[in-house]
Amino acid sequence: MSRLLEGVRVVEVSMWGFVPTTGVVLADWGADVIKVEHPEHPDPARGVMTSSWVAGRNGVRFLFEIFNRGKRCAAIDLGHAEGREVLYRLLESADVLVTSLRPDARERLGISADVISARFPRIVYASGSGLGPQGPDANQGGYDLSAYWSRAGTAYCVTPRDAERPADMPAPGFGDVPSGTILAGGIAAALFRRERTGAGSVIDLSLLNAGMWAMSGELTATEAIGADRFYQGDGRVAGNPLVALYRTRDDRFIQLVMTDGDRHFADLCRHLGRPELAGQERFTGQAARREHSASLIAILEEIIGSADLEYWTKALEGTSGVWAVVRGPREVPLDPQVVANEYVRVRHDREGRDYLSVVSPVRAIGDPDVDARPAPDHGEHTDEVLLGIGLSWEDLIGLKVAGAIL
Prior knowledge:
Blueprint: E1 9-13, H1 18-28, E2 32-37, H2 62-68, E3 72-75, H3 81-91, E4 96-99, H4 103-109, H5 113-119, E5 124-129, H6 144-151, H7 154-158, H8 176-197, E6 201-206, H9 207-214, H10 216-225, E7 236-237, E8 240-247, E9 253-257, H11 261-271, H12 286-291, H13 293-304, H14 309-315, E10 322-325, H15 336-340, E11 344-348, E12 354-358, H16 382-388, H17 393-402
Parallel strand pairs: 1-2, 1-4, 2-3, 4-5, 5-6
Antiparallel strand pairs: 7-8, 8-9, 9-10, 11-12
């Protein structure tokens, strides 16, 4: 059985994390993804133009690896007339062009949606932007920290009310990775439509829109109830003590998510060793628990705070309602459920140095499990890619001398 997108060729003109994540997901699904970079000014995520993308303990450029594994790389100068013609030649064999360049840059380099769609009517043209293709800020740059985290309302809503400053974004690429995955899904949908109609598509996803999509429940709820936030910002949902965070004796946290309290409360009380609580009139029924929520929260805080996390992990096993331990990033890969589903893998860069990598979140059951190639060196596959589309060695030498390719 072939992988989902086996035989699909994707040309990616992008940098940093958002759209490169799209390329990783498409490569995981079997597509041949060719990353196009400038011969002299490659993707800044390689670390050559910024000090913030540090290497790991063994020298692995782990962020570049997770955003670019599985791809080939061709170094082509799109600002050079001959380089642009090389890209057009490459697009003759491509199904998808995906880019993170801003509209003004795409126009200047001759790869705007209008130009590409007119020349290649079957191609799927996908752009990932910071703030969307229309409006006064369409040509303004955007990162997940600015557009997804700050501007879309996420930082505001996860910050406790008594905090002195908004919460920090919890992970590098926190908005890039889910947004890139959404864009990959849009590309797959556009490819499906092309199979039905023969026509290409122009699609766009912005970090701002993706962030708002993630926050859509909050944006809708706050408008509906006329409040500045729906969740309380203290780990609790107003009026429901069974959807709340509780601290254990050893300063760990357990998240209860028992929205259907009438179904789960009695069973929870048994697992907590306090079955008599379920029989108290003030806690019988959702309305009563809501009315006396402060009292029940105080009781649950006392109970759960009386023992360590290890004790509660065993005591709550088999509870009918949903709960989870709040885990740190060093613990997550060791979770038995993560291990059983192979959600993390040890991968290797081109020098054979290892790093931990999370697998992309959609896999077709039964598809062959193929290890992704390491993230490519700058221009590593230029000759291979261009020879593969019919250029000769003489052509390549001429283009290299002209400075159009590396």
